[in-house]
Amino acid sequence: MERRRKKLGEILIAQGLITEEQLLYALQEHKRTGVTIGAILVKLGYINDDELSSVLGKQIHLDQRKRIGEVLVDQGLISENQLQLGLEEQHRNGMQLGKCLVKLGFITEVKLVDVLSAQLDIQHVMLESFNFNPQLVRLIPKEMATKYRVIPLFEQDGTITVAMADPTNLRTVDHLKFKTGKDIEPVIAAEKSILAAIEKQFSQDQIDMTSVLNSLQVSDELDIVSTEETAADKGADEEGAQVIKLVNVLINQAIQEGASDIHIEPLEQYVRLRYRIDGDLVEKSPIPLQLRAQITSRMKIMAGMDIAEKRKPQDGRFQVRFQGREIDLRVSSYPVMTRKRGVNEKIVMRILDASTKQLSLDQLGFLSKTKEVFNDLIRHPDGIVLVTGPTGSGKSSTLYAALQIIYDISKNIVTMEDPVELHLDGICQGQIMPRAGFTFAEGMRSILRQDPDVIMIGEMRDSETCEMAIQAALTGHLVFSTLHTNDSPSAFTRLLDMGVEPYLITSSVIGVLAQRLVRRICPKCREPYTPDPEIVARTGLRPGIQLFRGKGCKACNNSGYKGRLGLYELLTPDETISKMVLQHQPSDAIKAHALKRGDFDSLRRDGLRKVIEGQTTIEQVLGATQND
User: Fold this and answer.
1) Is the entire prediction scored with pTM above 0.70?
2) What is the 3-state secondary structure of 536-561?
């Protein structure tokens, strides 16, 4: 009874029917009088009978636990004779007794659920007039929700309340926990109501997208600067004009929300639309399935791709002008197989906004000590500076920031990238084209004939490129490049693995910067809290320390995060590290020496400093870094 009473209050508050103060007063009255919470809320005028039953059904209370058939008879919902007929039907087909009685027409499913709610002490929720949160509903895919007969209702303190046809099925609860990554608290609802709500909510998303498309006026804010569209496109029919408008809206919205990528993915029942915002994919209202082919064709036309070729991946790009600034969009198509519809194309667009990429080292997240050493490294007249990390860790942004810092009219800076993500004024940027024979190794030969002072190589992928970069560094050039390694000491072992002679590495590499990206706490809803003692002990922080997290607000879409910042690990080799490289010692040994040296902060340590400063959360740092 206590469990159901607590959930009753949570549901009414989540639906906006009562306030927390009203519930608190009703609970006090319940303790004093013993009258049910629902009756007290109605008596006090906080809610009326119709509102209560429209959300929570009939509240049945049992004095003792009985079998379902006995309860139904005691409540006058069925007769003894109907109970016997139901038992006979159960014996024949093996179904649950309640379902047999509903099948025979002796009781409605809603009344049966009212009784089950009382028997199991699990709150019954009526879904017909329930106000759903569309984003919360989409945490569970439609196929999964239909299969398990479940639908999310609301979230409170990291726990999602989910309506289930069978709340006693612990395996289903475990599946939902795994899918959402959150704790699950079940309530009970009629199976038909759940299926109807699922259909309504997921179809409503498609209706919303279509209605938005019909109601939107063509925006002058988004202007296609460079595209391969033909005169036939400009004279498109009404349906074609709608598709053009929808594509413009998708791009417009993504840029406004600060997305780095747009994902358009064909599924069986609809086309899923997701934006990558601050490193995480955020699902938006799905696109109606009937517009899939037109939208794909429109994007491929804009990017100069072959619309007739659907069997192999393609790449393209185009440019738009948005609110006075020009933005590049890099488009990639990839054929995917769907069970019912065969081969369809997934489209991903990378948004390259120059105005948001030109960041200083402070804005990227460098702490003062690391920034000072890195600033000194990038001003060396020669040598190699490596930036390492996985794909999407912000290596290009760091290199671009470094080039902008050292740019001077007296220096010739030449880059070789794959691809050029951001155009920098005054810097000669080249893009490799392997199909045309323009590889990193070939490019290095040409760059050295261009009288460069500073060279940036997008990535050192093979031993030939590495050796040419080292030769450039040894002949008086400053070289920037990237490697895919987990930390900075591993850069030395990676170069050794690629066949570079150890004496060449020690004489040319002057610094290695490893990095990761984590989400930044939203400044508008940042609040202090005391972390769990177990996490504090695990990370070596001071017991009782006060940290920060985002509460969630409109500015950050209730995520608690806004933007990203880097975690950095800068290693400058000394005489001991040079000897260790010459001896082919493992990266762990190099890292252990650097940590003992006292002037080296690992990724984990840099992250914890930013946690203490309130820039990010401890969960973000633990998820992005390894223990030292």
Assistant:
1) no
2) HHHHCCCCCCCEEEECCCHHHCCCCE
